[in-house]
């Protein structure tokens, strides 16, 4: 297994982790359960580590696919730029989750406020990481581009007539 395989496998962790963590955190807020909030924070921390791993292995994945026919440099660059924003948001989410865990364990009066703040950061992070995943999928899954890369080609709807 090389870094490209790791990149393709690990990229799903931040997507599903930020979504699952958000659901768990919302449930913990609703039930007023500190243990559930801490579980959500741990999911976010793992997601942030996964995002870092995905980002670090992205360069090797780029080297693997950049010379494949049909892979556009612009698509890779767009994905890479989006990945930086997603990584930053997930690092913020992971660090905020460490703080949230500490405050929750210490029974701080700020526990609920930090939990709501982390939930908002998680929703933003989820949006950014989903966009990044979608853009990454366009690198090799040409069915996702819908002929955006080749505007001169007829679409499926035009050829069915």
Please give a quick description of this structure.
Helices cover 79% and strands 0% of the residues. The protein is mainly alpha-helical. It has one domain.
Biggest sheet, open or closed, and with what strands and sense?
none
Q: How many helical elements?
A: 6
Q: What percent of residues are in strands?
A: under 5%
Mean pLDDT equals 89
Helix-strand pattern, N to C?
HHHHHH
Q: What integer value in Å does the Rg equal?
A: 19 Å
Helical content band:
over 70%
The total of beta strands comes to: 0
Distance between the termini: 46 Å
| Integer tally of domains | 1
Multimeric organization: single chain
Sheet/helix structural class: mainly alpha
Low-confidence stretches: none
Task: Sum up the overall morphology in one term.
Answer: elongated
Description:
The structure is a single chain. Helix 1 packs across helix 3, helix 2 runs antiparallel to helix 3 and helix 3 packs antiparallel against helix 4. The mean pLDDT is 89. It is elongated, with a radius of gyration of 19 Å. The protein contains six helices and no strands. The termini are far apart. The protein has one domain. The chain is 79% helix and 0% strand. The chain has 161 residues and is an all-alpha fold.
List keywords for this structure.
6 helices, mainly alpha, 0% strand, 161 residues
Present the secondary structure layout:
Blueprint: H1 3-10, H2 12-31, H3 34-65, H4 73-105, H5 111-140, H6 156-159
Helix pairs in contact: 1-3, 2-3, 2-5, 3-4, 4-5
């Amino acid at each position: 297994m090389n870094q490209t395989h790791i990149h393709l496998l690990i990229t799903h962790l931040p997507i599903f982790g930020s979504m699952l963590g958000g659901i768990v955190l919302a449930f913990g807020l609703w039930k007023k359960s500190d243990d559930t909030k801490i579980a959500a924070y741990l999911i976010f921390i793992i997601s942030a580590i996964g995002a870092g791993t995905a980002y670090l292995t992205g360069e090797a994945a780029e080297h693997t696919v950049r010379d494949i026919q049909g892979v556009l440099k612009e698509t890779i660059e767009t994905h890479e730029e989006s990945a930086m924003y997603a990584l930053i948001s997930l690092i913020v989410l992971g660090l905020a989750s460490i703080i949230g865990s500490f405050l929750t364990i210490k029974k701080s009066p700020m526990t609920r406020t930090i939990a709501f703040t982390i939930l908002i950061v998680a929703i933003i992070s989820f949006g950014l990481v989903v966009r990044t995943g979608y853009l990454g999928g366009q690198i090799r899954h040409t069915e996702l581009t819908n002929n955006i890369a080749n505007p001169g080609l007829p679409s499926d709807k035009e050829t069915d007539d």
